[in-house]
Amino acid sequence: MPQGFRLLIIAGVHGQEPQSAFLLEKISNDFTLVEKEPCRVFSSSKNDLEIYSIPRFNEYGLLNKIRGNENKVDLNRNLPAGNWSKEFSHIDYNPGPIAASEPETKKLVSLIKGFEPDLIISIHTNHFVTVKHPPQVNFDGELESHGFKLAQMLSELINLELTCDIGYSTPGSLGSYAKDLKIPCITLELDDELDNDESLERYEMPLKKFLGAVYKAQ
Ligand SMILES: [Zn+2]
After folding, report:
1. Please, which residues have CB within 8 angstroms of residue 201's CB and are 6 or more apart in sequence?
2. What is the model's pTM?
3. In this structure, which residues have their CB less than 5 angstroms from ion ligand 1?
4. Is 136 part of a structural domain of the chain?
5. Does 1 reside within a domain?
6. CATH of residue 137
7. 17: CA distance to ligand 1 center in Å?
8. What are phi and psi of 215, to 5 degrees?
9. How far is residue 67's CA from residue 129's CA, in Å, rounded to a whole number?
10. What total of structural domains would you count in the chain?
11. Distance from the alpha carbon of residue 90 to the mean position of ligand 1, in angstroms
């Protein structure tokens, strides 16, 4: 484990996946609020483990129960990844007029550039638009890396299958952007059929155990 491990955790990217936001808010409840606009950012620092947490990345989408943000842009297709494309197969995948057009995306990009995380965890549910996929721990990055070992550990703790290909292309996604920057990224796709309380019951302890294991390893 490298010294000074930095972890970025984000949830509530899609407004119809409120369970992800609920879960990360609970996990971040003793973190310090460091930024408010366009989305609240919390931080925590214990020994050499630093965490930045964004539980409600797409505040507008969460409040209005829609996938996109105020401009109906899918924030997980708007990152300035090399594979960003203005083409889209479904209106719910609207990537925006240009890469990083949205205020939320700009904030995330500047945070990633300033914080330089060693690992990104992006929490979603398996709520789907066109392609149904099971709940899973999806990993973007090198298979021989420390990040992959952490993804394996999380997969075991949370009892969800570890995959490296979600089964469809995700241009402009956070996973694609992180891959460009060589930052390992875990996209956690929780079971969408569970409500907020059920998600908390099912996933809170495994996630806390995971963070505890990362913390202890420092
Ligand atoms: Zn999602």
Report:
1. none
2. 0.95
3. 14, 17, 124
4. yes
5. no
6. 3.40.630.10
7. 6
8. -60, -50
9. 9
10. 1
11. 15
